[in-house]
Design a protein that fits this description.
Number of helices: 13
Low-confidence stretches: 106-116, 283-289, 292-312
Radius of gyration: 24 Å
InterPro entries: KAP_P-loop, P-loop_NTPase
CATH architecture of the largest domain: 3-Layer(aba) Sandwich
Strand content: 5-15%
Number of strands: 8
Number of domains: 2
CATH class of the largest domain: Alpha Beta
CATH superfamily of the largest domain: P-loop containing nucleotide triphosphate hydrolases
Protein name: KAP family NTPase
Strand order of the largest sheet: 3-2-6-7-1-8
Distance between the termini: 35 Å
Organism: Moraxella bovis
Shape: elongated
Length: 312
């Protein structure tokens, strides 16, 4: 809780700092820890407290040019206000720009075999010129297209900060970024915060007060932080208990513990060396039901798996 709470407080302070000065803050953490989920929850809960009146969220996944990125930033910008009048006005503006982009045709200029769409460029430029004093979240930096150079992305972020007075939040998995990012990081980012604890995020996903203590015990002893892991366990668990009437609490307890172990086996499977061709391996459920602690990225997992004889 302490980590998510401290990041909440830091983000709120940064995003409400001097309105005449931009800022770039990175939000990083291990793969699957829930950085995007954390940010979206933060914005949903704190939007009314934010100093900037405009906000845009953009994932770099699928964006293959700098102009496309500029266009997405502009078209995704919305009012942070929950006032219905502001929201309606904002919707009309975005609808108009989208209509113009899709329907107004300005002839292309042909030059040495290269077609430049004047219409698209003019509209993108006009839209982007309106972007200022905005909170902008740029997600999935490590999933960017190969056609989109990290140098250009960093240059645009720097421009948004220094020329547009924007507060930019960049969500990334720092270990998966390339060397170019490390080169530009110090020049562009004012600070980077690390999300290391995420049980408060998991708790909102699980939404099950009856079983939450089992999830917490598992989380604390095995340090499994992958959000998708818990989403799958939750889905499997609910499917089972909804198909059987009048299950006792002890039965539900046993079902959930078993599911956590089965899903853990699936999660760490690529790290387990198997001698047989079918890549099958077996577990001692009696040993694992107590959630004996170990680090799944550590070599000790191999010793644990090798010591087990059966599963169910």
């Amino acid at each position: 809780m302490a980590n998510t709470q401290s990041i909440n407080e830091r983000l709120l302070k940064v995003l409400n700092s001097d309105k005449n000065q931009g800022y770039v803050i990175g939000l990083t953490g291990e793969w699957g820890i829930g950085k995007t989920h954390f940010w979206k929850n933060f914005y949903k809960e704190k939007r009314s407290e934010l100093g900037c009146q405009k906000y845009a969220y953009i994932s770099l996944f699928g964006i293959d040019s700098l102009d496309s990125l500029k266009y997405e930033i502009a078209i995704q910008t919305q009012a942070t206000s929950t006032d219905k009048k502001d929201s309606k006005k904002n919707l009309k503006i975005k609808s108009l720009f989208t209509f113009i982009t899709n329907n107004v045709k300005i002839p292309d200029i042909q030059s040495n075999g290269f077609a430049l769409s004047i219409g698209q460029n003019i509209i993108t430029g006009a839209l982007f010129s309106l972007v200022k004093d905005t909170i902008i979240c740029i997600d999935d930096l490590e999933r960017k297209s190969d056609n989109l150079d990290i140098k250009d992305i960093m240059g645009l972020i720097s421009h948004l900060k220094t020329e547009k007075n924007c507060k930019v939040v960049v969500i990334l998995h720092q270990d998966k970024t390339d060397n170019q990012f490390q080169e530009y990081k110090e020049k562009v980012f004012d600070e980077i915060v690390h999300l290391t604890e995420n049980f408060s995020i998991i708790k909102t996903i699980i939404d099950d007060d009856e079983m939450i203590d089992i999830y917490k015990e598992f989380y604390e002893k095995l340090a499994v932080k992958n959000i998708r892991f818990y989403e799958r366990v939750k889905r499997d668990y609910r499917e089972i208990i909804e198909s059987v009437d009048d299950l006792s609490l002890s039965s539900k307890d046993s079902i959930l513990r078993n599911l956590l172990i089965v899903r853990l086996a699936d999660l760490i499977k690529p790290e387990i060396p198997c001698e047989n061709k079918d890549n099958n391996f077996v577990f001692d459920l009696k040993y694992l039901l107590n959630f004996e602690p170990y680090n799944i990225s550590d070599n000790s997992v191999v010793d644990i798996i090798n010591s087990l004889e059966y599963f169910f």
